[in-house]
Design a protein that fits this description.
- By secondary structure, this protein is an alpha/beta fold.
- The chain is built from 15 helices and twelve strands.
- The chain has helices spanning 22-35, 59-67, 70-74, 83-94, 98-103, 115-126, 144-150, 173-186, 208-224, 247-257, 295-312, 319-329, 331-362, 382-391, 415-426; strands spanning 41-42, 107-113, 133-137, 154-158, 189-195, 229-235, 266-273, 286-292, 374-378, 394-395, 397-399, 402-406.
- The strands form three sheets. The protein has a seven-stranded mixed β-sheet with strand order 2-8-7-6-5-3-4, sandwiched between helices.
């Protein structure tokens, strides 16, 4: 008799897929508490809510979606994506630095995907050998593990923060360099997934000096090991809510202007998501963007990524590709969108500043946090802390190594309560 129902019907990988997503599980607990009439605080879901608890929606995006022709809702998009959207995606990733890189002769490739998750899948499925380990920070978005496992990949990590004070307060450069070296010696590929700026789950953003150090380490390793492919993937899901949304573009331009040689076996990719920046989570629209000085490389990747998309999800959803291209192609609507995005960023900044100040007042040792949706409390037993907070009807998310605090979801007038509750349960 099978030990589990249907054990003979599923493969070995499928048999490991079980249980509920931790984040959505805790969000469900918050909803249940509200349903029971409790004065509950939501610090769980990774969605931006207004202070009244409703979903924050960029009204410019909403209006233009509703004005779009029926054909744009119902028709397939081209397999690689709508050309105007693909062009826009490169600008959203690189910002004002795109022109400088183009003038230097860089080639760009963009492939539309179902959200940022689709972009991560394209990279994992194509840019490293099965069995290789991908290098992540030791604090990262939990579903990364599933993407890697599903593509036959392993995981290696380096610390989120340096153990001792050094040149880069938010980048453990020595551990990163050692990890890259170890992988380059033992694998055919070295791929790093770096969620920056506005890191999920901590809200950490690297400094310009830290970005440059990371880039230099990757490029030096690629030069040292010319037969090993090196890829730096920048997960920019929250970047447009950061104070330096296009800092990496500046760092790349600076490196080129300094005369740093770009190894042929080095690629930078951006995993772009419109879910947060355009408050369109359910329309599942994103892109994987690659940049390389040899345009024949980007053209080859265009075919590879496009074919992978065709064989996986056929074509990414069309409607937001069309709407975003129309929105940003018009100066007036683009400015309206920007003003609304700034308002939403201001909401996040207000909550973060209030939370950091309250944690200082009540002695809560949160991690450094700068941008985006979240803050983070390092802890060896996060489940015990979140369970204790839930007794006060404050709902946060326990993850490996700590607690994710969803500033994006909690109203501003509840921020101090969350800090006080953490202080109470920690004591």
């Amino acid at each position: 008799m099978d030990e589990a129902p249907g054990a003979s019907l599923v493969n070995a990988l499928a048999s490991t897929r079980q249980g509920n997503d931790t984040i959505f599980g805790w969000y469900a607990r918050y909803l249940a508490a509200k349903e029971e009439g409790h004065d509950a605080v939501n610090g769980t879901a990774g969605i931006l809510l207004e202070n009244d608890g409703t979903l924050a929606i960029n009204q410019v995006v909403d209006r233009m979606l509703r004005e779009a022709p029926a054909l744009e809702f119902s028709s397939y998009a081209p397999l690689k994506g709508l050309p105007d959207f693909l062009d826009l995606s490169i600008s959203l990733a690189l910002g004002q630095h795109r022109d400088a890189l183009q003038s230097m002769g860089f080639g760009f490739v963009s492939t539309a995907s179902p959200g940022g998750s689709g972009a991560l899948f394209l990279a994992a499925n194509n840019l490293c050998e099965r069995g290789d380990a991908i290098l992540l920070r030791d604090r990262h978005w939990g579903p990364y593990a599933g993407f890697l496992k599903g593509c036959g990949l392993e995981m290696a990590t380096w610390p989120l923060l340096p153990e001792t004070e050094g040149d880069y307060p938010y980048f453990a450069d020595e551990a990163f360099e050692a990890s890259v070296e170890q992988l380059a010696q033992s694998q055919n590929t070295v791929m790093v997934w770096l969620n920056d700026p506005a890191h999920n789950p901590t809200g950490l953003t690297m400094t310009a000096e830290g970005r440059r150090a990371a880039l230099d380490i990757m490029m030096a390793s690629a030069s040292k090991y010319p037969d090993v492919g090196h890829t730096l993937l920048l997960d920019t899901a929250y970047s447009l809510y950061a104070n330096e949304p296009h800092g990496w573009g500046q760092t790349i331009v600076d490196a080129m202007e300094d005369g740093t040689p770009w190894p042929e076996n080095f690629l930078i990719t951006y995993a772009l998501s419109l879910s947060k920046s355009h408050t369109a989570y359910g329309l599942r629209t994103g892109a994987l963007i690659g940049i390389h000085p040899d345009q024949s490389v980007t053209e080859r990747l265009r075919d590879i990524f496009g074919t992978t998309g065709r064989q996986t999800w056929s074509a990414a959803p069309r409607i937001l590709q069309y709407t975003a291209a129309q929105l940003h192609g018009n100066e007036e609507s683009a400015e309206e969108w920007s003003q609304e995005r700034e308002r939403l960023q201001g909401l996040l900044t207000e909550r973060r500043d209030m939370f950091v100040n309250a944690c200082q007042e009540y002695g809560v040792p949160i991690n450094p946090t700068h941008d985006g949706f979240f803050a983070w409390l390092e802890h060896d037993d996060p489940e015990s802390i979140t369970e204790a907070c839930a007794e006060h009807h404050v709902y946060l998310v326990p993850l490996r190594g700590g607690i994710r605090i969803g500033l994006c979801a909690m109203p501003s007038d509840a921020v101090e309560r969350v800090a006080k509750t953490l202080a109470t349960v920690l004591s």
